[in-house]
Amino acid sequence: MSEKNPVKAVADKIADALHGDAPTDGPEGGVPGKPAPVSPQLVEPTQPVEPLPPKADQSGPETVSPTGQPTGADQARMAQSGAYLTTAQGVRVHDSDHSLKAGPRGPVLLQDHHLREKIMHFDHERIPERVVHARGSAAHGVFQSYGTAQAVTKAAFLARDAETPVFVRFSTVLGSRGSADTVRDTRGFATKFYTEEGVFDLVGNNIPVFFIQDAIKFPDIIHAGKPHPDREIPQAQSAHDTFWDFVSLHTEATHHTLWNMSDRGIPRSYRMMEGFGVHTFRLVNAQGVTTLVKFHWKPKLGVHSLVWEEAQILAGVDPDFHRRDLFDAIECGAFPQWELGIQTFPDTDDQMFEGIDLLDSTKIVPEELAPVQPIGLLTLNANPSNFFAEVEQVAFHTGHLVPGIDATDDPLLAGRNFSYLDTQLTRLGGPNFPQLPINRTHAPVNDMQRDGMHQTAVHRGVAPYKPNSLDGGCPFFAGADAGAFIEVPVEVPAGRKVREAPASYSDHFSQPRMFWLSMTPVEREHIIAAYTFELAKCYEQAVKERTLGVLANIDPELCAQVAVGLGLPAPAATEPLVDVRPSPALSQIGRTWPLDGRVIGIVTDQALDVAGVREVREAVLDAGLVPLVVAPAGGVLGADGEPVTVQRTFATARSVEFDALVFVGVPGAGADAYGARDAKAGAPRSPVSDPRVLALLTEAYQHGKALAGWGGAEALFEAAGISVGDPGVIVTDGGRGMPQLLELLSAHRVWERFPAAM
């Protein structure tokens, strides 16, 4: 980031603008979520004005032509223009509230061309959603190469100091477009690099392994995970019979399933999520030397997760939590960042490393055996200006490669290379989807492909074929010296045509056991709870018992604890337990991380220490975090001095939105603190504070959030059953406890509050 405290810088900029005539170009007071670049007036505007510009945090696709030529046009040239409502043909419209009728009560006339066009377009606004990864969010950014990969690849975007525009989409796998963000699921992490040599798509996940080893099984795993076809339930979850029936029979899915049942399945934020290319790729350098690699995205903020109860609550109170978190952070100037890294392996004939088959997408190579080497920095710095045009219409493809990066013989990757193009034909209406603005390459295009649905390029010439002389022989073939993509001429094994897999693919339990043994006791408890919850939602006893048999082959304690929760006997292992070395890099706990964009709730009311609220709010902004003031009612606090805007009320606040809470005094009860108005206020009355404040405090404590307070806050804590000496509970004189609060927050949670039985 260019600023030390970008959130504070944005807040200061806004404050300056509010005291002058400059338009607001960011989140007011450091708090994101303002829907338009300027605040509306009370009455409907009637004086014609041109369309407002986008907010400062928004951007659109680069203005290149359908054939990749820079146009130099402002992005506004791609948007609507003019102060007056028109038809799609540019004809100005004087009324769009009434159909053309034969008299005020007469029949609608067929000649109403505006009605016909408006309804026709509305009826066709939706396109088919993605079969998988339908629920997603995305942002624009830039990738800056360190140049450290130049020894292993000639890819131009990985040269030293090269900067490449990118568009990154995060997603869930199983749910529909309208499903919740915080479900337990794998997340997609797809990056489109608009390189000078063409588009490179790194289409990965937040889990480094896949359910299957061969793409021919992909329809099976997705059909098993999707809602049951007879009832179309349950939505966006794997806690049902068909999923567990499949994965308990198809044990190559065990490793991925275990990751999904861990905290990795419920990330705190897209900004705090790792990404993996999953497959092994082949790099080739300028000398033609090849290296096998795995790609990793490492978040600068660390890898953090929700606890399961938080995820469930958020699915109800804010199903858009992850996309809101991403968009708000960018709007605040807390730009999310990841380092791209690679694990490198010799390109040997057997394509094995330390006994691990590099073509098996259900296996990882532990970082202790092959360290991840940083090769560049990704920064997301702009939100989309139109969700449909960019996030919905972006089309990724594992086969979009550039010189220096090639595929391997991974059978899952081969099938994905075949599948992605078919998907776009249905979703985006034909073969010209690369010409949509968000998909356009920034490199020149001369492909000789013509016509088709939604053709927007106006091709010239008369000879779209090779060889030709009528167009002067153009386009010409390029050699390696001219930057052509040339597949690495690797030797292909000869043999019989078979539907088989290598013997190395048959080991389904050693790496799941390594993952289990690498978890801390708290993380193991979460895995046990996840398996117990998911299997308890299944109807068929045989599915539960069969899955317990799979868990027994990972670890007897895991199996036994889940069996207790299901009320079933724990079976014995059917395969010998493998002696494996844990990989500490797989655990999320035990380190500290930056706090950019973390959300702090400041709970108070009008009658308390408003000056103290201002002080702690300023300290939160100075630390690069986002303060949200919570009070009994909306409006502003402080009749004297600079007013403090209230962002949440006791009725709307929920602990899951905050990373930590600060209580400035003991807030009194709100005027709406009764059950008929707000059921959350229907708890037993407390003489200390509003019951919703006590619920907020109790919930945050249970979820391991850091807590601070002063001005009698110890009485509030005690009323909630919390002792001042408990881990992560700070009582200070004024805002002096902020450094201690931030130190606690850097570990993500107060983990001491989660005692483990093991």
Automatic annotation (TrEMBL):
One of its GO terms (molecular function) is catalase activity. Its cofactor is heme. InterPro entries: Catalase, Catalase_AS, Catalase_clade2, Catalase_clade2_helical, Catalase_core, Catalase_haem_BS, Catalase_immune_responsive, Catalase_large_C. One of its GO terms (cellular component) is cytosol. Keywords: Heme, Hydrogen peroxide, Iron, Metal-binding, Oxidoreductase, Peroxidase. Heme binds at residues 130, 169, 218, 416, 420, 427. Residues 86-474 form the Catalase core domain. The active site is at residues 133, 205. It catalyses: 2 H2O2 = O2 + 2 H2O. Residues 60-72 have a biased composition (Polar residues). There is a cross-link at residues 397-420 (3'-histidyl-3-tyrosine (His-Tyr)). Its EC number is 1.11.1.6. Residues 1-19 have a biased composition (Basic and acidic residues). The keyword Cell membrane does not apply. GO terms for biological process: hydrogen peroxide catabolic process; response to oxidative stress. Residues 1-76 are annotated as: Disordered. Decomposes hydrogen peroxide into water and oxygen; serves to protect cells from the toxic effects of hydrogen peroxide. Belongs to the catalase family. HPII subfamily. This is Catalase. It comes from Streptomyces subrutilus. The lineage of its organism: Bacteria, Bacillati, Actinomycetota, Actinomycetes, Kitasatosporales.
